[in-house]
Design a protein that fits this description.
about 160 residues; Rossmann fold; 10 strands; alpha/beta; about 25% helix; six-stranded mixed sheet; L-asparaginase; 4 helices
Length: about 160
């Protein structure tokens, strides 16, 4: 069983009308998995609905506590990209689990989103990687301890 924790971020943003900004909506992943006929046993738990720039140390501790308490050995965390590596570093204190974090540069609700690809890639990664914490974005696997978000390039890169 893969445990999927959602925390919000761009992947869950929705656009209500032409006069509003994107807001964090309900977790997009349950519909995404159903629509793509994902059959791997999983359960989804929504931990919070926040932009990752709004996450604080207490939120990160809540995420860490939920992951640590889960009976699953394989954990997928959807998270906003701006502070994904910060949370990933906090999760590195959890032994014996494969924890993969992913998100999207564009909301799952828009046509040109990378959300579905990233979630599918992360689901494969969590089933095949050894225990540890990883960031799975845009077809690449990163170690959160040595990774940064390149905002200008809209991607993640290893620190040099």
């Amino acid at each position: 069983m893969i445990e999927i924790f959602t925390t919000g971020g761009t992947i869950d943003k929705v656009y209500f009308d032409a006069l509003s900004e994107f807001q964090i909506g309900p977790a997009a992943i349950p519909d995404m998995l159903r629509e793509n006929n994902v059959l791997v046993p999983h359960r989804v738990t929504q931990l919070m609905r926040k932009d990752s720039l709004e996450l604080d140390d207490a939120d990160r501790e809540a995420i860490r506590a939920a992951v640590a308490a889960s009976d699953a050995a394989q954990i997928l965390v959807t998270h906003g990209t701006d502070t994904m590596v910060t949370t990933g570093r906090v999760l590195q204190s959890i032994p014996g689990k494969t924890i993969v974090m992913t998100g999207a540069m564009q909301p799952a609700s828009v046509r040109a989103s990378d959300a579905e690809f990233n979630v599918g890639f992360a689901l494969a990664a969590v089933q095949t990687l050894p225990a540890g914490v990883y960031v799975a974005m845009n077809g690449m696997i990163f170690d959160p301890a040595t990774t940064v978000k390149d905002r200008a390039g809209a991607r993640f890169v290893a620190e040099s």
